[in-house]
Amino acid sequence: MASFNAPVTSEPRHAALHPATELVLLVCGLLLTYGIPSPIVPTALLIGAVVAAMVSPRVRFSRWLITVGALAVPMLIMIGIVQGLFYPADGAEVLWRWGAAAITVEGLAVALQLWLRVAAMIAVCALFAFGSDAARTFDGMIRLRLPLAIAYVCATAMSLIPLLRQRVSQSLAARAARGWNTARLGTRLRLLPGIIAGLLTASLVQLDQRHDTLEQRGFGRARRPAPLQLHADGAAQSWLRWGAPLLTVSLIVLSLAGALPLPTASDVLGALRD
To answer: Which residues does 260 contact at the CB level (< 8 Å), separation at least 6?
Structure first.
């Protein structure tokens, strides 16, 4: 993780959005996905996430796609079985039945809406996680005037994942040098619990020491600490950070009031059947 006392550096020019703007757009996207009961919103968010992952210079598209697939596909199977086959059929339109299992229009609609929401959430969160780092997250949160302690905890949590992955690889390599056959999956599964437990303990001790060091150096005494990097910002992004939440709340209120004519999952399935 980048040191919070490191000198301010310039961010690469390809980083078009300020991390604070990215955080605001992330929250707005998630609120729209769960606040508007239409599959159009999560579908649009999924398409936008795919395009952003393809063009972003900070995100490796193949890695992002594998992560989203590994998390979303099992969820699709589980939701499809629970909702698609065992949805309560009282008064529902049954398309196919075999014993206790039945495919209903209502069950498919619930499964479609729920999976699209979960997949969209996974896609945008993975996009932010792969396209950001601890320093960008910290700078974005202090730009949004969030409490310094929250910004530090969130940025530190983001730094733990790549650190643990690197140290697990080093630990497995060390075991392999001592004669362990770490190429076998069974050997890895037997070694991982002990490795991860030791690494988590060491990481917690390291974080406590780092926090004490930062407090001794005056961390948290300044009302508005300087950012770790110089990010591109301007009036347009400032307006976007204010306008996006207002537009999001307005759309959700209109949807709850029935004034936003977007098709539901049942409407989409009915159109496909016709």
So the answer is: 36, 251, 254
